[in-house]
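Batch manifest line 486
LIGAND: 5'-deoxyadenosine
JOB: complex structure
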Amino acid sequence: MSALKEYEAQLEAIDLTDPAPPQEPERQRWFMKKAAELIKEKSQELGRPLTARVKTFGCQMNERDSEKLRGILEAAGYVLTEEENADFILYNTCTVRENANLKVYGRLGYLGGLKKQNPHMMIALCGCMMQEAEVVDKIQKSYRFVDLIFGTHNIYKFAELLVSALQNDRMIIDIWKDTDKIVEDLPARRTYSFKSGVNIMFGCNNFCSYCIVPYVRGRERSRRPIDIIREIEGLVKDGVVEVMLLGQNVNSYGKNLEERVSFAQLLQEIEKIQGLERIRFMTSHPKDLSDELIDVMKHSKKICHHLHLPLQSGSSRLLKIMNRKYTKEQYLELTGKLRREIPDLSLTTDIIVGFPGETEEDFQETLDVVKKVAYDSAFTFIYSKRTGTPAAVMENQVPEDVIKDRFDRLLTLVQEIGRERSSRLQGQTLPVLVEHINEQDETLVTGRLDNNLVVHFPGDASMIGKLINVHLTDCKGFYYIGEAVR
Ligand code: 5AD
Ligand code: SF4
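JOB STATUS: finished
ARTIFACT:
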């Protein structure tokens, strides 16, 4: 029986004349069925199915949370859509940089207009941005048409919150400061049939001085290995061949578990799952990356040779103020070791430009690391002041024009090196996991190499979700054109 069918059977067995059970996940299943009853009534009244749209801002953690939220909406009887004019709109928000917040406010104004035309429309907001008290205040004052607000700690309770929102006209707000609770076994509606994100831990304990994540996602909590393995086995049964293990700092996985398990040990267990072909993970903090992990990666047949290792800055002086707990030299030693042990490894990174007090000398140190490590690609960010973090009140904020100039220089270097790194695979034949039909040319399919590089080659829909050997004929900078080898 497929996971969804199994789930439907479980819902079938619930009697809504019984009170909602106190324990999870049974309680949420009860509310899913209750929501389904309410949606059915509404849909009969309107003479059409009700639609729902979930829009994600931010990182892969949020993408995965959105799949869970979609699973709950689908179980409640909504038809999922990408249309902005749906009956239920849910924005899963991000607040890591100011820009992310501004985008949400901009779109909310537009949604308010749509709601005037469609009075059945319900608008819900969740995710990291909602964990900030000032944001919730502002929405209560200026965006009164919002129906439901919840945070990052209680998304498992979405079915229950949905029922409250459906039964109430006032704005429902449910934000928790933190939790040590992890609720398993709720449905998810995956974006891809053949690959999936899998949370292995939640939260972050590092408190890098610029970062708001520990305040909005709470303390580090690891899922039990048995729950992770069971989830992946279920996914594989459902057609998944690639998993991306997700956590803010996967290298410290297992530290809060009763039975201590390291991330490397967890990977070895996951490797044993038959039918699973590729294992990816992110994000790794350089301070916690162990020799044991390097060894496991080196000998694994399934772990992709790609490591995302955020640098943030190449200046040891700034790294200290950022509270990153490594120096430039330690970072370079680590990447040197990685390159020696796993020569075909792709390294990617995150870099922040314009952290308070960053001098030209500090910035030169960053450029120096970029040159020495030779990243395959890098996400470059302009420092964004996040209220409540230690860096927000630091003096010496760097002027905008200086940041812009540094950012442009960094981007040029990163792209130059990235192009050169990509071209090293020219002429090789490597497995590509096909993801979809090419958006511009439907005679082509698009997939990814083990190291995450994109490849386009002639093919058809039957290849989606399969690993195909592809001869990499033409490097186009950050992607390849190739030919399937049979
Ligand atoms: N400003 C700019 N970039 C930030 N990041 C985190 N906080 C900030 C901030 N305040 C970046 C870091 C992190 C990535 C996910 O976002 O580089 O690795
Ligand atoms: Fe933020 Fe640092 Fe935690 Fe990453 S490790 S989420 S940058 S505090």
